TrEMBL record, chains A, B:
Upper taxonomic lineage: Bacteria, Bacillati, Bacillota, Bacilli, Lactobacillales
Entry's family note: Belongs to the threonine aldolase family.
A matching Pfam family: Beta_elim_lyase
Cofactor: pyridoxal 5'-phosphate
Domain of life: Bacteria
Name of the protein described by the UniProt record: Threonine aldolase family protein
Sequence intervals crossing the membrane: none
Domain Aromatic amino acid beta-eliminating lyase/threonine aldolase intervals: 40-294
Keywords of the record: Pyridoxal phosphate
Length: 362, 362
């Protein structure tokens, strides 16, 4: 039987995306040399959790921060708090927000919050979309970058306009910053500078940071204190969260200064893709460590092409391809630690092969 | 300044309760010798999580099982599913149920489930309490043992009566089995035998098992599948839960055959307490590894007495004392691995000191 794309991908010597395998080594590396007498956090208290929360609050320029097991939990809670404060159970976000498509409608099923869309599903939210919003919402959520459309970004000026407008109108602005570190090189801003435009901020530790799991929710003291009550209600106030906290801190320190490099590498890789026949990236101009590759050929043909490329070049470009329509398919690329170890000549050769093979697909 | 009870307790050579410190060694021990190439579970899929869920389902005699980060999450979800199935948002449980007093009303705030009490707060739920329940509830939750009243237990015959009755009446029966392993020696039953009386079961891995965190929810396939949807809604479907799964399995294997011993040791320790002046245990007859110690003296006096005992005997009995009223105080004792290493003579001496010192409190 012919091998599948994922099988051939896993056998390549070099993979261009990500930080490597999600195996136990990720945890073990983060624990190397730790003092085994260090006491566990206990239900949100203790040195391990309090120190990390303080560090992240300072980094994000907020009064305080709370460590959560997941962003799903942290963000629903953020929106719930803002809705309760205003007495309005309505929020607005992008139609492809994580909350809308990946959380089994937790926001609606658990919190009974009504959602309104800003922008359409192919582009980012612009100031005009906010102006045209015809609903009294408690909160607007912006995701930077907008992951499901290749990690596109609004301009920083747009963010400032939206932020100013929301403050005037009494609408809270929440940042889905799952990939916040990934966009700082493009904006040429610090995390605190971006976060200053928002009332509440969530960041993740297993995207670009490459940790195991975990999230931080930051804001004013009264907000984070309230979030702890909801964290307990959700079942997220675990007796011990330290396996996630220690690994989050370890990988944050390991990668915090690498996002400029990832951004440049993503730009380089995207230009290789854009030089190929019937291939384009979304976005065209790269703004983070990620983008989507679109190929105007049928999914099955592209899979066969990629298998051929991997076998001849030993370079793995993607482990999957998703159908857009019968004549187009796509996949996501995120640059992490692995890219720098890929020999440039081999990579060049892989793209020459890709271009050539795609031309021969009719 | 005089030292506090907890300070002196921590300096004693031997502590009679628990499995030892909750420090990083607990995690590191569980990871010793693991294969670092083992792949992480990914959003509830993969060998690590699926194997453990299968193992626990078999142990509990249920079709399937789902690993959760916490029991708070698992149990709210269990009750929600049963309420949805029946179209009745009402459940009944003990007035000192974990859901009622330790979860910031998550069941009510997130799931809008109305709760009714069975029994009063000083005793366990008996069959008669169920018979007298004057509400059409979707589910009854029984906690075995009833932790907040010293870990008391109904008889096994009572459980059978309640189970039969609930099946006749179309009421689901859910087991809060946070300390299920702890009561099997008293009942002289297997976990599966106890669980066969219940439609859904939760067990915990950081009580007697002594793991880091984590819970299992088990039942029929249609129930556990539905629970996975709610797990995602709650924000508990983490990309990686393996730090908790591996440690849960490790400590389950390490301690699964020790609960008979803990039970006997708890019985022995309780009889030492009950031989002291103005001291009694709840329950009087020990039925698990735990009990509450009540001392009919003011809290401050008892703390001073205990400090004296610890300093003279080097044995730590408890790190805290809770006021019941101005002439009575209490604390909880749970027996784990530490008890067996306490020299019997020293322990005897500690109780002689305790008895003598309590007599001198007026």
């Amino acid at each position: 039987m012919a091998k599948s794309l994922i099988e051939v991908f896993k056998q390549t010597t070099y993979q261009v995306g990500g930080n490597g395998k999600r195996n136990l080594k990720v945890l073990l590396d983060s624990l190397e040399g730790v003092d085994d007498s260090l006491e566990s956090d206990i239900y949100g208290k203790g040195q391990i959790i309090e120190d990390f929360q303080r560090k992240m609050a300072d980094l994000l320029g907020k009064e305080s921060a709370v460590f959560f097991p997941s962003g799903t939990m942290a963000q629903q809670i953020a929106l719930r708090i803002w809705c309760d404060r205003k007495g309005v159970n309505k929020v607005a976000y992008h139609p492809l927000s994580h909350l809308e498509i990946h959380e089994e409608d937790g926001l609606k099923e658990l919190h009974h919050i009504e959602t309104f869309y800003l922008a359409d599903s192919h582009r980012v939210i612009e100031f005009d979309d906010v102006l045209k919003l015809n609903e009294d919402v408690a909160c607007i959520l912006l995701e930077l970058p907008q992951r499901e459309i290749g990690g596109q970004l609004p301009s920083f000026e747009t963010l400032e306009q939206i932020s100013n407008y929301c403050r005037q109108k009494g609408i809270k602005l929440h940042l889905d910053g799952a990939r916040l570190f990934e966009v700082l090189p493009f904006y040429q801003k610090t995390a605190a500078e971006v976060c200053s435009l928002f009332d509440s901020v969530y960041i993740s530790f297993y995207k670009g940071i490459g940790g195991i799991a975990g999230a931080i929710l930051a804001g004013e003291d009264s907000f984070t204190e309230e979030s702890k009550v909801w964290k307990r209600r959700h079942g997220g106030d675990l007796i011990s969260l330290y396996p996630y906290i220690i690994s989050s801190d370890y990988y944050y320190e390991k990668r915090k200064d690498k996002f400029e490099q990832y951004y440049k590498e993503a730009t380089e890789l995207a230009s290789l893709y854009n030089s190929c026949h019937d291939v384009f990236t979304v976005p065209q101009e790269i703004v983070s460590n990620m983008f989507h590759v679109h190929i105007k050929k049928p999914k099955d043909s592209v899979e066969n092409v990629l298998i051929g490329v991997y076998e001849e070049s030993n370079i793995g470009l993607t482990g999957y391809v998703k159908e857009v329509n019968e004549n187009e398919c796509s996949y996501e690329v995120s640059i992490g630690d692995l890219y720098e170890s890929v020999p440039k000549e081999d990579l060049q050769k892989a793209f020459e092969l890709l271009d050539e093979k795609l031309k021969n697909v009719n």
